[in-house]
Amino acid sequence: MSNKKITNAMSVDVEDYFQVSAFESVIDRASWDSLECRVEKNTHKALALFEEADIKATFFVLGWVADRYPRLVREIVDNGHELASHGYSHSRITTLDKKQFREEVRTSKALLEDIGSVNVKGYRAPSYSIVESTLWAHEILAEEGYRYSSSVYPIKHDLYGIPDASRFSYEIAALDLTEIPVSTVEMYGRNFPCGGGGYFRLFPYRLSKWAIARVNQDEGNPCNFYFHPWELDPDQPRQKNIPLKTRFRHYLHLRRMESRLQRLLKDFSWGTMEEVYLGAAK
Questions:
Q1: Are 13 and 60 in contact (CB under 8 A)?
Q2: Which residues contact 153 (CB under 8 A, 6 or more apart)?
Q3: Cβ–Cβ < 8 Å for 154, 162
Q4: DSSP state letters, 185-247
Q5: pLDDT band at 69 (very low <50, low <70, confident <90, very high)
Q6: Alpha-carbon distance 109 to 86, whole Å?
Q7: Could you give the domains of the chain?
Q8: At residue 160, does pLDDT exceed 70?
Q9: Assessment of whether the complete model's pTM goes beyond 0.90
Q10: pLDDT score of 217 more than 80
Q11: What pLDDT was estimated at residue 197?
């Protein structure tokens, strides 16, 4: 069943395979520059998928990546997509103090705006690390000129999540800032993910399609969907000495991801975060 009535938000968290938080215990940050970078090639795959489907998306670009691949940032903008911030170093907010976090979001915003020559309005925390203990981050984002955050996941998870947070976009009290949670579907009194990431690779496609259609048709709301460039790369270097759970989450069904995304892009209507949630068409 196709749904063309509601435009959903499509986004990409632009980071490389070795920068995921789950690999922190086996890949030293100091070694990042010595590792094989595949983010540019894989982001080009995402851009090609969007061009084929004739849609525009939001790219939450890591400052570390932008520093090393400024041409990639310009390609994103030149192709009509929205440029947004994923922080600079992919450090979870739970590992930063307020001063360090402010420096992260200020530096990344300035860098992206300088390279892309656009106003960066959006931010997504690494590993959705705006949780109960880091809600103070919203105030800093507003002070640094961001218009929206997409950093809360309203689910119960071992690494992140605020299970009782609103499932849909909401204004932060007393701040000119909108929080846009990753999409979930409510069943049996619990929220289940339907906004991308590893869950999109884990669940059968028909289940993801059903869940997004339910949010659109039954609840009348857009979905906020995301993926990473490395999820389009089944041939990426495999990490050793990682926990079985981490191995399962990271590598599951990578070879199926591209074809699933192609189906998803055709089955629903998509736009940028700015267009869908701030009402600003490109």
A1: yes
A2: 128, 160, 161, 162, 181, 182, 184, 193
A3: yes
A4: EEETTEEEE-SBTHHHHHS-HHHHHHHHHHHHHTT----EEEE-GGGG-TTSPPPSS--HHHH
A5: very high
A6: 9
A7: 3-28+36-277 (3.20.20.370)
A8: no
A9: yes
A10: yes
A11: 86
